[in-house]
């Protein structure tokens, strides 16, 4: 079912949007603040959406998205274009998620939330219900690499190759992490 | 895999994430723009030292601690480490398996080697900075390679492939690639500029790619044991006399039992056969008065694991004082309360164990408690043992915490013991620990000397070991032996009961000290012999008559068993070739007739310095033709000896687990305490963990 998606890897396409992004990146690297602003404009939704999926709540997602924007501002001059800009953004976003979760020890909280769904976990928003189901909770308790692989491939619907590019590993490793994740969650789902 | 219709993860793709809020987006954009502007202005001014302004800088600093696990962006750091580690770990393993290094010491050695290597690589790195133009195109960027900003630097797919999290085959491939490409090596060298970080991440990553190291049969447990070689076979013509000190310790059996019950084979050095045998109470005939503190029981019977040889079984039972003789005890508990004791099988078990002991004490006994961890302190001044509530309350208050760095812990304990010293009674320090003997005197020798000096002053020392993983059995044994006390390993409550309640009398009350055994074999009857166990207790022949040489002590009611495997002359089982020129004919002062051997035992009464001698000839009347004719106790002891030898992988004896089990069953006897039944269970565990070789049925 992912065969058609396979063609639309984050790394490969030579399409309009990508060409525009490349141009904006080049301009931003030359110090064009307006171009950088446009890049943020274009990618904020991607960042926010990713952060949301990884964290499962609005406030963390917004914090992370802002953090990532700040990081992009500082680091864009170092971006060398060897991977797609969006892959690079993913990577920074995933790192930001990890940093935050490690710093706050959120993962323990999620694991606990998963252990018993208590009344206070009832989501306030409709959207939140979608991302706090048992499946999401289970996936978020996975080890980081497994979680990242699963979410990139299934929630972001990227190909294994694109996920591998983002995660900085081989394609087979992504497949393996997903396999492991499935094994880890066997019996829970 | 992803086409699987039942794939549970598919639902993840159908999630609707709420749209970003415009305010948040605007805020983030502003912040990003500010960072961008700051970075740009810095860059244009070419002030690289504070590259991105203070705010940016701070954010980066905060991820430093998590760098080691932050693999997505930083896997380039461990590339080189992976390479080095792949080299170093097999080397370390080689070192480990081919030298006599103790298991506990080895990981440290590997670690040191691993940390040293990156440093060497670092030095190389400085000489080849040009080898990494791709990563560090300009001087200004070089810092980024090492420092956290590396997060933002791009990575080539090839480099990514070397992510340390990759499974072993990939890492191997990468390793080969690197070996072939000098540039690859250069890169890795440059990337190793932060050796500290590298070493850390290596520790985190490397165990996975080395499955061959994990699958060793005897994984080092972290506990330390004195290394020893098995007693070898000796020809009577060469060495007719065998001398050893008795050993009443039982720590080895508890340790072995625990290992087997947990499903792992104990290290061979942890199996001391004499301690296995002596763990069980045997009903040998004891002396009737305290004048002669013990009496030997001897039998010779066929060896269960070798039809051509015989076992010479020497059983000793200590005198049991009549119930009326209640010797006063002055006990000082010296308790390790370091952080590592905070486990269910350590401090909590210790508290209950000492509770049991306190229950045994009476009105003429005193108890005091000293703890050590961080600082040594007196928890309970010497107190009459009838004040049970107060003693137990003091015990109860103990809690584990802090590092074991107790200065003066042991000195303090001895001071209390001397303060409350009872002349004519038992004055003893009981040290309870999980292996940290850092009790204020650093060098083990100095500690042993200190204990020896105190022992001569009348205060003895017993050691109770708790827990596992940290246990320093070698030191434990050395201290208890120097302190004329016992070393016991308390693995569970049942064991605590055995050591402190059932054997409480013998653990506390010594009836004879420096007990040595010497057996002289008659070369006319015995051609070869081998003492089973007692490897760590061997004495020189001349030590037997030297009262200055220390030896083991025996407590009230203790039983001690020593078993020799002997090869009768002409049995055809000789392993040692006879000498071509023959030996000088032995000059016998008396007519020895057909005596097999002559047993001599030396001991000192508790308050004496001059040894007494017990002598006994082993005559043919003591020989039994069938193992069924001997007592249950002796058969059982033979089964335990066979078990120990098989478990250790002894060079001698060849018997199946089933035969050992049958022999133990036949010698089980009344077994009121159930220890023997437990042993029979243990044979089953061992048989599963170390199956018979296929030749044995």
Automatic annotation (TrEMBL), chain A:
One of its GO terms (molecular function) is DNA binding. The keyword Oxidoreductase does not apply. Gene3D superfamilies: 1.10.1740.10, Winged helix-like DNA-binding domain superfamily/Winged helix DNA-binding domain. GO terms for biological process: DNA-templated transcription initiation. CDD domains: Sigma70_r4. It comes from the Bacteria. Residues 39-107 form the RNA polymerase sigma-70 region domain. SUPFAM superfamilies: Sigma2 domain of RNA polymerase sigma factors, Sigma3 and sigma4 domains of RNA polymerase sigma factors. Residues 134-185 form the RNA polymerase sigma factor 70 region 4 type domain. Keywords: DNA-binding, Sigma factor, Transcription, Transcription regulation. InterPro entries: RNA_pol_sigma-70-like (IPR039425), RNA_pol_sigma-70_dom (IPR014284), RNA_pol_sigma70_r2 (IPR007627), RNA_pol_sigma70_r4_t2 (IPR013249), RNA_pol_sigma_r2 (IPR013325), RNA_pol_sigma_r3/r4-like (IPR013324), WH-like_DNA-bd_sf (IPR036388). The keyword Transcription regulation applies. PANTHER family: RNA POLYMERASE ECF-TYPE SIGMA FACTO (PTHR43133), RNA POLYMERASE SIGMA FACTOR HI_1459-RELATED (PTHR43133:SF8). Belongs to the sigma-70 factor family. ECF subfamily. This is RNA polymerase sigma-70 factor, ECF subfamily. It comes from Devosia limi DSM 17137.
TrEMBL record, chain B:
This is Ca-activated chloride channel family protein. Residues 330-511 form the VWFA domain. It comes from the Bacteria. Residues 1-25 are annotated as: Disordered. InterPro entries: CLCR (IPR051266), Uncharacterised_YfbK_N (IPR022156), VWF_A (IPR002035), vWFA_dom_sf (IPR036465), YfbK_C (IPR021908). It comes from Devosia limi DSM 17137.
